[in-house]
């Protein structure tokens, strides 16, 4: 996915630089739909569509992490990865990132039952997210961990998103965006661990190419989700059958 095979193997610092270069070129903060979201150029219905479709991604992250957790060979690795499940699923009803995302969709005026039913998803959202879960389930542990390295770049996009949405949308409040504050500390903690693991374990040309391809794949998943939103909700008349349709203004 990333071009010609590497030769000879990169040093750990060179590998990290190559991973960061993928994020600089391909992370979805560059996508036109995200730029519009942050800059206040979307209407309420378009923001609702984004939040509803993104819910599927958020809700499947714990399932993705559970598939990897079951394959990790040591208690140390399992303890580390188990924190991600707690971060997203919480340790009691109404806690965790998925519950906070539902507060976001509540705050945007979406019916919680409709969001949780997943009936309004864009087909491309479902396909992209399911492909990511399958990737983590089926690929090597090294590739699965490397695919999480989009978290290296998430604090920047979160800061932009919160500031931009609060500035531009009168229907958004700090309480609506409560999901994002914990991620400013969780994501760097998780990405520090994943990056250290990849630096230590990706030693051969083949392993290094695999981790670069894994991060590229994950960036493509996130980018394709925004492509689908842009096509369906920014270009008029392109909402596919069965997908979320905003109420008339």
UniProtKB/TrEMBL annotation:
Keyword presence, Transit peptide: no
Which BP terms in the Gene Ontology apply to this protein?
pyrroloquinoline quinone biosynthetic process
Keywords of the record: Oxidoreductase, PQQ biosynthesis
| Enzyme Commission numbers on file | 1.3.3.11
Q: In which pathway does it act?
A: Cofactor biosynthesis; pyrroloquinoline quinone biosynthesis
The catalysed reaction is: 6-(2-amino-2-carboxyethyl)-7,8-dioxo-1,2,3,4,7,8-hexahydroquinoline-2,4-dicarboxylate + 3 O2 = pyrroloquinoline quinone + 2 H2O2 + 2 H2O + H(+)
InterPro entries recorded: Haem_Oase-like_multi-hlx, PqqC, PqqC-like, Thiaminase-2/PQQC
A GO MF annotation of the entry reads: pyrroloquinoline-quinone synthase activity
Give the top-level enzyme category: oxidoreductase
User: Family, per the entry?
Assistant: Belongs to the PqqC family.
Q: What is this protein called?
A: Pyrroloquinoline-quinone synthase
Question: Origin organism of this chain?
Answer: Gluconacetobacter diazotrophicus (Acetobacter diazotrophicus)
Starting at the broadest rank, the lineage of the source organism is: Bacteria, Pseudomonadati, Pseudomonadota, Alphaproteobacteria, Acetobacterales
Gene field: pqqC
């Amino acid at each position: 996915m990333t071009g010609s095979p590497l030769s000879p193997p990169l040093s750990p610092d060179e590998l990290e630089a190559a991973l960061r270069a993928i994020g600089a070129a391909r992370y979805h903060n560059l996508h036109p739909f995200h730029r519009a979201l942050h800059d206040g150029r979307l209407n309420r219905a378009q923001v609702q569509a984004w939040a509803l479709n993104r819910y599927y991604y958020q809700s499947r992250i714990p399932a993705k992490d559970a598939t990897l957790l079951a394959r990790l060979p040591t208690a140390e690795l399992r303890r580390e990865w188990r924190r991600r499940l707690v971060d997203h699923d919480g340790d009691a009803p109404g806690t965790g990132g998925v519950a906070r995302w539902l507060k976001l969709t509540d705050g945007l005026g979406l019916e919680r039952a409709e969001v949780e039913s997943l009936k309004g998803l864009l087909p491309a959202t479902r396909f992209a997210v399911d492909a990511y879960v399958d990737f983590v389930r089926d690929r090597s542990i090294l590739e699965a961990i490397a695919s999480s390295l989009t978290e290296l770049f998430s604090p920047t996009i979160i800061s932009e998103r919160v500031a931009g949405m609060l500035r531009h949308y009168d229907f958004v409040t700090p309480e609506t965006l409560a999901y994002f504050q914990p991620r400013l500390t969780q994501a760097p903690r998780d990405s520090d661990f994943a990056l250290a693991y990849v630096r230590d374990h990706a030693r051969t040309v083949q392993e290094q190419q695999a981790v670069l391809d894994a991060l590229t794949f994950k960036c493509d998943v996130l980018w394709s989700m925004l492509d689908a939103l842009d096509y369906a909700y920014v270009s008029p008349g392109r909402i596919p059958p069965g997908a979320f349709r905003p109420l008339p203004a």
